[in-house]
């Protein structure tokens, strides 16, 4: 199970956005340059993020994007879901009564992978953009030096 570039890049871009523009719009070109993501790809992602309520756009000179809500209220799962990234480890179609086997039954390990999918979603739902910015994530080095190093790397 791994997150595709769509989900990873959307999270990277919104953490960058929160880091650089809490009080002012940020141009996508700036995010693209800092995070080394194609501008056209970011434009596609931000259209979905805007539709999903994660960001809002500001038109005109000095325009760009801003978070639609405070960083401490924007969960990582909100971002991943907004860009239509499935958070699942099963081969089965979600909510379908049919399984992934040729005879339409569920595989013998279905419940294992379904449980993993739930754990991943719960974890991503427990982490906000603000948590990522502050380094307040389980298992991470949250020393002042490590936090400063992550901030410098984001610029």
UniProtKB/TrEMBL annotation:
<dbReference type="InterPro" id="IPR000944">
    <property type="entry name" value="Tscrpt_reg_Rrf2"/>
</dbReference>
<dbReference type="InterPro" id="IPR036390">
    <property type="entry name" value="WH_DNA-bd_sf"/>
</dbReference>
<dbReference type="InterPro" id="IPR036388">
    <property type="entry name" value="WH-like_DNA-bd_sf"/>
</dbReference>
<dbReference type="Pfam" id="PF02082">
    <property type="entry name" value="Rrf2"/>
</dbReference>
<keyword id="KW-0238">DNA-binding</keyword>
<dbReference type="GO" id="GO:0005829">
    <property type="term" value="C:cytosol"/>
</dbReference>
<dbReference type="GO" id="GO:0003700">
    <property type="term" value="F:DNA-binding transcription factor activity"/>
</dbReference>
<protein>
    <submittedName>
        <fullName>Rrf2 family transcriptional regulator</fullName>
    </submittedName>
</protein>
<dbReference type="GO" id="GO:0003677">
    <property type="term" value="F:DNA binding"/>
</dbReference>
